[in-house]
Amino acid sequence: MSALGAVLPIAQVDSGDTAWMLAATALVLLMTPALGLFYAGLVRSKNTLNTFMMSIAAIAIAGVSWALIGYSLAFDGEGALIGGLGHIGLSGVGFEPRGEGTIPHLVFMAFQGTFCIITVALISGAVVERMRFGAFMVFAALWSVLVYAVLAHWAFGGGWLAEQGTLDFAGGVPVEMASGFSALAAALVVGARKDYGRQALLPHNAVYVLVGAGLLWFGWFGFNGGSGLSTGDSSVLAFVNTLLTPACALLTWFVLDLIRGKRVTAIGAATAIIVGCVLITPAGGFISPAWAMVLGFVGALPCYVAIVWRPRTRVDETLDVLAAHGIAGFTGILFLGLVAQASWNGVADGLFYGDAGQLWSQVVAVVVTPAYAFIVTFILLKLVGAIMPLRASEHDEAVGMDVTQHGEEAYATGEGAILLMPETDGEKKLVADPG
Amino acid sequence: MKLVIGIVRPEKANDVLEALYRAEVRGVSISRVQGHGGELDRVETYRGTTVKMGLSEKARFEVAVSDDFVQPTVEALCDGARTGEVGDGKIFVVPLEQAVRIRTGESDKAAVTPVVKK
Question: Is the ipTM of this complex over 0.85?
């Protein structure tokens, strides 16, 4: 290192790493509106905007809660269970890198913030078409701090899970398993849609679903490829694996669709893309490209089974967040405990390469994370439900959440719409005295 | 022979179909229409533009039935479509001069509910 670098710690910032992480942060943020589009296509047309708006609201709510307190609880200090309060309101987060990083602390904070945002948005999939918009926003604010920030601390912020050896490259613990198992709890507390199990409740626009999945995949290159926090080997490996695993998951899905219904389905394909991206999320920078392909082929199976099985239950976990994120994240975390290779990741070997202990560390994560996410979400929603109604009235649910929650329609024709003039004196006079 | 026309809330259309099925009424057409009854106008806002939606989406059922089936059909429409709120819709029963089943050329009573199995 140059003498100048020793004097000015800011010189530790690597311009290449920073450039990539700025772009990666924007890519991950794009995933949330993409998820909104994906979810909007999967619901009935009368709930399009409300479903989309839950994702948009996640940006507003989690973006703010993250800056105010979530980031501090997740990434301040090395406490076993929870971080400190040193970064509340982003105090002490500046241009100098955090720890041994090579990017400005601010960029690190923003990158992690986009993860919190998408995770909150993911849970909305369990409660669309009936949960009140206001209640969802209150829940989102609390969840982003009490569940996301805590699990992010455990997995990424120096908490006990990482300390005992759990490897999680890009968020199998705080993002995928947390959202999936929280979604299950949310579906149980909020309850099924009134027509669930009685009427066919079908996706209203499969093209939205495919475009949304495509944009999510695009954003996921920043999500996984940025989780090395640099342009180093692990980022490159995760980036490439993010191409391979979903492609393999798609092929598996095609075959399973063919076996089950003799046709390859479009919404199945969109689902497979998500499942593939989730599978590789925890493992991206730790396993070889060949194993990443195996993960795509094999890991899609339990998710497919869960998606086929869930509608036969009474649990209206509407958009299958548990199957696509919870089960896939669970599978990815475990799989990496088998096939991680120090020769690829420079960190640890899995069971197949001689370290059974790594698999054990992964098992701890897949037991504790779902339990924490499910229990805290369950209690949290019961508490929110005690102070305000979680659900829209039956009438509002029947008319549709777009009109009743937002006073807008996704597909307004304007037929029969009577223009109301702005309420100013001058304008009123114009209307009253047309001659 | 009558033509029963029911104009109902679109979100109750499935319930009406179920009620008609249970009343053993077979043969029904549904179209989406827009109309205005006595219901309160709904206000929607798009950026600076605020509008009053004077027309509501409705589903229009048309069922041609023999005289014996008029009452069951009307009852099924009422049962399926009623919420008790303004805007539940209307039922009109009008006389029908002729009905022809295109496939067989059967006409009138043989062509409408009740469907007789042959």
Answer: no
Q: What is the DSSP letter of B113?
A: B
| Chain B residues closer than 8 Å to A50 by CB | none
List, for residues A274-316, the tens digit of each pLDDT value. Answer: 999 999 999 999 999 999 999 999 999 999 999 999 999 999 9
Residue A7 has pLDDT above 70, yes or no: no
A229 within some domain? yes
Parent domain of A282: 8-406
Q: How far is B51 from chain A (nearest CA, A)?
A: 5
Contact A408 B83 (CB under 8 A): no
Residue B118 in any domain: the answer is no
Q: Is residue A431 part of a domain?
A: no
Shortest distance between the Cα of A288 and any Cα of chain B, in A, equals: 51
**Structure tokens of A40?**
């909007």
Here the CATH number for the domain that contains residue B43 is: 3.30.70.120
Contact A228, A420 (CB under 8 A): no
A413 found inside a domain: no
With bands split at pLDDT 50, 70 and 90, how would you rate the model's confidence at A432? very low
Length of chain B: 118
CATH number, domain containing residue A206: 1.10.3430.10
Closest residue in chain A to residue B46, using alpha carbons only: A408
- Gap from B25 CA to chain A (nearest CA, Å): 20
Say how many domains are in chain A: 1
Per the domain annotation, does B117 fall within a domain? no
| Number of neighbours of residue A203 by Cβ within 10 angstroms | 18
Furthest CA-CA distance within chain B: 63
A1 within a domain of the structure (yes/no):
no
Range of the domain at B28: 2-111
Q: How many CA atoms lie within 13 A of B82 on its CB side?
A: 9
Instruction: Report yes or no on B116 lying in a domain.
Output: no
Chain A residue with CA closest to B15: the answer is: A199
pLDDT at A413: 82
DSSP single-letter state for residue A311 = G
B50 touches chain A (CB under 8 A): yes
State the total domains in chain B: 1
Contact B77, B8 (CB under 8 A): yes
User: Which distant-in-sequence residues (6+ apart) come within 8 Å of A108 by Cβ?
Assistant: A21, A75, A97, A98, A101, A229
Do the Cβ atoms of B85 and A395 come within 8 Å?
yes
State the average pLDDT over residues A28-32: 98
pTM of the shown model: 0.90
pLDDT single digits (tens) A378-429: 999 999 999 999 999 999 999 999 999 999 999 988 887 888 876 554 444 4
Q: What is the pLDDT of residue A422?
A: 67
Do the domain assignments include residue B35? yes
- Which one of B8, B53, B56 would you mutate to disrupt binding with A, by most A Cβ within 10 Å of its Cβ? B53
